[in-house]
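Entry 12.
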Amino acid sequence: MRSKIAISAQLGFLTLVTVFSVGIPLGLLAARFNGTWIDPFVIASLLFLTSVPVLVIIPPALWLFASQLDILPVGGWGGEGLDGIFDIWWIGGVVAVPIPDPHIYLPLFVLSIGGFAGVARLVRITALEVLSEDYVRTAHAKGLKETTVAFRHVLPNALLPVITVIGFALVGILEGAFFTETLLGIPGIGRFAFQAVQSRDYDVILAITVILSTAFVLANLVVEIAYTWIDPRVRLGEAINA
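Predicted 3D structure (C-alpha coordinates):
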Protein backbone atom coordinates (compact mmCIF):
# COMPACT_ATOMS: atom_id res chain seq x y z
CA MET A 1 0.00 0.00 0.00
CA ARG A 2 2.79 2.43 0.91
CA SER A 3 4.54 2.03 -2.46
CA LYS A 4 1.24 2.51 -4.30
CA ILE A 5 0.52 5.72 -2.38
CA ALA A 6 4.06 6.95 -3.12
CA ILE A 7 3.64 6.34 -6.86
CA SER A 8 0.28 8.12 -7.02
CA ALA A 9 1.58 10.97 -4.86
CA GLN A 10 4.56 11.48 -7.19
CA LEU A 11 2.34 11.44 -10.27
CA GLY A 12 -0.22 13.75 -8.65
CA PHE A 13 2.40 16.24 -7.49
CA LEU A 14 4.06 16.42 -10.91
CA THR A 15 0.65 16.81 -12.54
CA LEU A 16 -0.28 19.71 -10.25
CA VAL A 17 3.04 21.42 -10.98
CA THR A 18 2.57 20.92 -14.73
CA VAL A 19 -1.06 22.11 -14.68
CA PHE A 20 -0.27 25.42 -12.98
CA SER A 21 3.13 25.94 -14.64
CA VAL A 22 1.53 25.70 -18.08
CA GLY A 23 -1.96 27.02 -17.30
CA ILE A 24 -0.98 30.32 -15.63
CA PRO A 25 1.33 31.63 -18.41
CA LEU A 26 -1.11 30.38 -21.05
CA GLY A 27 -3.99 32.23 -19.38
CA LEU A 28 -1.99 35.45 -19.17
CA LEU A 29 -1.05 35.08 -22.83
CA ALA A 30 -4.69 34.53 -23.77
CA ALA A 31 -5.67 37.70 -21.87
CA ARG A 32 -2.91 39.58 -23.67
CA PHE A 33 -4.46 38.74 -27.07
CA ASN A 34 -8.02 39.48 -25.99
CA GLY A 35 -10.03 41.11 -28.76
CA THR A 36 -7.69 39.96 -31.54
CA TRP A 37 -8.27 37.25 -34.14
CA ILE A 38 -6.38 34.83 -31.90
CA ASP A 39 -8.91 35.20 -29.07
CA PRO A 40 -11.74 33.02 -30.51
CA PHE A 41 -9.24 30.29 -31.41
CA VAL A 42 -7.77 30.33 -27.89
CA ILE A 43 -11.21 30.23 -26.23
CA ALA A 44 -12.40 27.36 -28.43
CA SER A 45 -9.20 25.38 -27.85
CA LEU A 46 -9.36 25.80 -24.07
CA LEU A 47 -13.05 24.85 -23.97
CA PHE A 48 -12.37 21.74 -26.05
CA LEU A 49 -9.42 20.59 -23.94
CA THR A 50 -11.33 21.20 -20.71
CA SER A 51 -14.36 19.19 -21.85
CA VAL A 52 -12.48 16.10 -23.08
CA PRO A 53 -12.37 13.43 -20.33
CA VAL A 54 -9.22 11.50 -19.48
CA LEU A 55 -10.78 8.25 -20.68
CA VAL A 56 -11.07 9.70 -24.20
CA ILE A 57 -7.54 11.14 -24.28
CA ILE A 58 -5.70 7.92 -23.40
CA PRO A 59 -6.40 5.82 -26.58
CA PRO A 60 -5.31 8.47 -29.13
CA ALA A 61 -2.33 9.39 -26.94
CA LEU A 62 -1.24 5.73 -26.86
CA TRP A 63 -1.77 5.40 -30.60
CA LEU A 64 0.24 8.53 -31.42
CA PHE A 65 3.14 8.52 -28.96
CA ALA A 66 3.59 4.78 -28.32
CA SER A 67 2.47 3.17 -31.59
CA GLN A 68 3.02 5.61 -34.46
CA LEU A 69 5.89 7.79 -33.21
CA ASP A 70 7.29 5.08 -30.89
CA ILE A 71 8.86 7.66 -28.58
CA LEU A 72 7.19 6.65 -25.30
CA PRO A 73 6.56 3.29 -23.61
CA VAL A 74 3.04 1.91 -23.79
CA GLY A 75 2.60 1.93 -20.03
CA GLY A 76 3.98 0.76 -16.72
CA TRP A 77 6.15 2.56 -14.22
CA GLY A 78 9.92 2.92 -14.03
CA GLY A 79 10.36 1.70 -10.46
CA GLU A 80 9.73 2.50 -6.82
CA GLY A 81 10.49 5.76 -5.05
CA LEU A 82 12.27 8.40 -7.09
CA ASP A 83 13.29 5.66 -9.55
CA GLY A 84 9.75 5.91 -10.90
CA ILE A 85 10.37 9.51 -11.93
CA PHE A 86 14.08 9.78 -12.66
CA ASP A 87 16.78 7.64 -14.18
CA ILE A 88 20.07 8.50 -12.50
CA TRP A 89 22.94 8.87 -14.93
CA TRP A 90 26.43 8.95 -13.52
CA ILE A 91 29.06 11.06 -15.26
CA GLY A 92 32.51 9.68 -14.62
CA GLY A 93 31.13 7.78 -11.64
CA VAL A 94 31.08 11.05 -9.67
CA VAL A 95 28.26 13.38 -10.78
CA ALA A 96 24.68 12.09 -10.64
CA VAL A 97 22.32 13.61 -13.23
CA PRO A 98 18.57 12.90 -12.82
CA ILE A 99 16.98 12.20 -16.20
CA PRO A 100 13.16 11.98 -16.32
CA ASP A 101 12.03 8.39 -16.81
CA PRO A 102 10.17 7.87 -20.12
CA HIS A 103 7.25 6.21 -18.31
CA ILE A 104 6.25 9.49 -16.65
CA TYR A 105 5.53 11.50 -19.81
CA LEU A 106 2.39 9.77 -21.09
CA PRO A 107 0.39 9.72 -17.81
CA LEU A 108 1.59 13.24 -17.07
CA PHE A 109 0.36 14.45 -20.46
CA VAL A 110 -2.99 12.68 -20.12
CA LEU A 111 -3.67 14.00 -16.61
CA SER A 112 -2.43 17.54 -17.28
CA ILE A 113 -4.03 18.47 -20.57
CA GLY A 114 -7.52 19.13 -19.25
CA GLY A 115 -6.27 20.66 -16.01
CA PHE A 116 -4.02 23.31 -17.50
CA ALA A 117 -6.76 24.28 -19.97
CA GLY A 118 -9.15 24.87 -17.06
CA VAL A 119 -6.56 26.89 -15.15
CA ALA A 120 -5.79 28.91 -18.27
CA ARG A 121 -9.48 29.77 -18.71
CA LEU A 122 -9.74 30.92 -15.10
CA VAL A 123 -6.53 32.97 -15.28
CA ARG A 124 -7.68 34.58 -18.53
CA ILE A 125 -11.01 35.66 -17.01
CA THR A 126 -9.46 37.03 -13.81
CA ALA A 127 -6.62 38.72 -15.70
CA LEU A 128 -9.11 40.54 -17.93
CA GLU A 129 -10.93 41.77 -14.83
CA VAL A 130 -7.67 42.96 -13.27
CA LEU A 131 -6.58 44.70 -16.48
CA SER A 132 -9.68 46.91 -16.31
CA GLU A 133 -8.88 48.10 -12.76
CA ASP A 134 -7.78 51.69 -12.15
CA TYR A 135 -4.43 50.79 -10.60
CA VAL A 136 -3.42 48.88 -13.73
CA ARG A 137 -4.37 51.84 -15.92
CA THR A 138 -2.37 54.09 -13.61
CA ALA A 139 0.65 51.80 -13.96
CA HIS A 140 0.37 52.00 -17.74
CA ALA A 141 0.00 55.80 -17.54
CA LYS A 142 3.22 56.01 -15.54
CA GLY A 143 5.04 54.39 -18.44
CA LEU A 144 5.88 51.10 -16.73
CA LYS A 145 6.97 48.26 -18.96
CA GLU A 146 4.37 45.69 -19.98
CA THR A 147 6.25 42.90 -18.20
CA THR A 148 6.46 44.98 -15.00
CA VAL A 149 2.73 45.65 -15.04
CA ALA A 150 1.99 41.99 -15.75
CA PHE A 151 4.15 40.49 -13.00
CA ARG A 152 3.80 43.20 -10.34
CA HIS A 153 0.15 44.19 -10.67
CA VAL A 154 -1.79 41.73 -12.82
CA LEU A 155 -0.34 38.34 -11.87
CA PRO A 156 -0.62 38.56 -8.04
CA ASN A 157 -4.26 39.63 -8.22
CA ALA A 158 -5.13 37.16 -10.97
CA LEU A 159 -3.70 34.29 -8.91
CA LEU A 160 -6.10 34.73 -5.99
CA PRO A 161 -9.03 32.82 -7.57
CA VAL A 162 -6.59 30.24 -8.97
CA ILE A 163 -5.29 29.38 -5.51
CA THR A 164 -8.79 28.48 -4.37
CA VAL A 165 -9.20 25.79 -7.07
CA ILE A 166 -6.07 23.82 -6.14
CA GLY A 167 -8.11 21.50 -3.93
CA PHE A 168 -10.64 20.86 -6.70
CA ALA A 169 -7.79 20.35 -9.18
CA LEU A 170 -6.38 17.69 -6.85
CA VAL A 171 -9.75 15.91 -6.81
CA GLY A 172 -9.86 15.97 -10.62
CA ILE A 173 -6.35 14.53 -10.82
CA LEU A 174 -7.23 11.75 -8.37
CA GLU A 175 -10.35 10.90 -10.38
CA GLY A 176 -8.34 10.82 -13.59
CA ALA A 177 -5.70 8.65 -11.92
CA PHE A 178 -8.21 5.80 -11.57
CA PHE A 179 -8.51 5.50 -15.36
CA THR A 180 -4.94 6.51 -16.18
CA GLU A 181 -3.26 4.10 -13.79
CA THR A 182 -5.60 1.27 -14.77
CA LEU A 183 -5.29 1.65 -18.54
CA LEU A 184 -1.55 2.42 -18.51
CA GLY A 185 -0.64 -0.29 -16.01
CA ILE A 186 0.73 2.07 -13.34
CA PRO A 187 0.82 0.31 -9.94
CA GLY A 188 -0.58 3.27 -8.01
CA ILE A 189 -3.44 3.68 -5.59
CA GLY A 190 -5.89 4.46 -8.42
CA ARG A 191 -5.34 1.08 -10.08
CA PHE A 192 -5.37 -0.58 -6.65
CA ALA A 193 -8.75 1.01 -5.90
CA PHE A 194 -10.15 -0.12 -9.25
CA GLN A 195 -9.05 -3.69 -8.55
CA ALA A 196 -10.56 -3.49 -5.05
CA VAL A 197 -13.91 -2.40 -6.50
CA GLN A 198 -13.84 -5.28 -8.97
CA SER A 199 -13.08 -7.83 -6.23
CA ARG A 200 -15.47 -6.14 -3.75
CA ASP A 201 -12.74 -5.73 -1.16
CA TYR A 202 -14.62 -3.26 1.06
CA ASP A 203 -11.84 -2.90 3.62
CA VAL A 204 -9.44 -1.65 0.95
CA ILE A 205 -12.10 0.62 -0.55
CA LEU A 206 -12.77 2.16 2.87
CA ALA A 207 -9.05 2.65 3.55
CA ILE A 208 -8.49 4.34 0.19
CA THR A 209 -11.51 6.59 0.75
CA VAL A 210 -10.11 7.72 4.11
CA ILE A 211 -6.66 8.35 2.59
CA LEU A 212 -8.01 10.40 -0.31
CA SER A 213 -10.38 12.36 1.94
CA THR A 214 -7.49 13.21 4.27
CA ALA A 215 -5.39 14.33 1.31
CA PHE A 216 -8.22 16.59 0.11
CA VAL A 217 -8.65 18.17 3.57
CA LEU A 218 -4.91 18.78 3.93
CA ALA A 219 -4.73 20.27 0.43
CA ASN A 220 -7.51 22.73 1.25
CA LEU A 221 -5.79 23.66 4.52
CA VAL A 222 -2.60 24.45 2.60
CA VAL A 223 -4.68 26.49 0.13
CA GLU A 224 -6.18 28.58 2.94
CA ILE A 225 -2.73 29.29 4.40
CA ALA A 226 -1.32 30.12 0.96
CA TYR A 227 -4.24 32.47 0.33
CA THR A 228 -3.37 34.53 3.41
CA TRP A 229 0.26 34.67 2.29
CA ILE A 230 -0.59 35.92 -1.20
CA ASP A 231 -3.30 38.34 -0.02
CA PRO A 232 -2.26 39.95 3.31
CA ARG A 233 -5.70 41.57 3.58
CA VAL A 234 -7.09 38.16 4.53
CA ARG A 235 -6.19 37.11 8.05
CA LEU A 236 -5.59 33.45 8.79
CA GLY A 237 -8.42 33.19 11.30
CA GLU A 238 -10.88 34.83 8.91
CA ALA A 239 -9.79 32.60 6.04
CA ILE A 240 -10.26 29.40 8.04
CA ASN A 241 -13.61 30.48 9.49
CA ALA A 242 -14.93 31.67 6.10
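Annotation: The chain has a mean pLDDT of 79. The first helix runs from residue 2 to 32.
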